[in-house]
Design brief:
Layout: H1 16-35, H2 40-43, H3 54-73, H4 99-118, H5 141-165
Helix pairs in contact: 1-4, 1-5, 3-4, 3-5
Length: about 170
Amino acid sequence: MPPLPEGEPPPSIDDPHTLLEGYLDHYRATLLRKAAELSEEELRTSRLPSGWTPLELIRHLTFVERRWLCWGFEAEPVSDPWGDRGPDDRWRVPETMTARQVFDAFEARCARSREITAGAALSRRARTGGRFTVPGEAPSLAWILFHLLQEYARHVGHLDVAVELAGGPAGE
């Protein structure tokens, strides 16, 4: 996979589709950059009362992309769409999964997401039969991308706090 772009999309972009894709890639790259500040031990350590670890957050976002774009927008059959959650409904990473495997799975999922959204109109509604079963209630691609963008914005902020608490740099 080619490296994700650094920084926000240029202010000269006025195409909404390009802007949404650009900001999603910005947050994806920021997530990976922030996580790279942490050792394997810190990636698996929670410093927050809620108990999630940075590696669990990255795996969660891998599944978020899968749920919204593969299973949701494309209605592709997906085994275990909630596989990022354990029996207690908390995010989890199998003990046998390395940090590199989590990062690689995230990057592969983001590449697949880009393939799905690249040629689709923002006004196109999600197909039914996957996550969405009622045709009139399926969201548009624009809605899904905005949803993903706000989820990334929140979670990258969460990761920023976790990195700072682990002794890493703060901010972007």
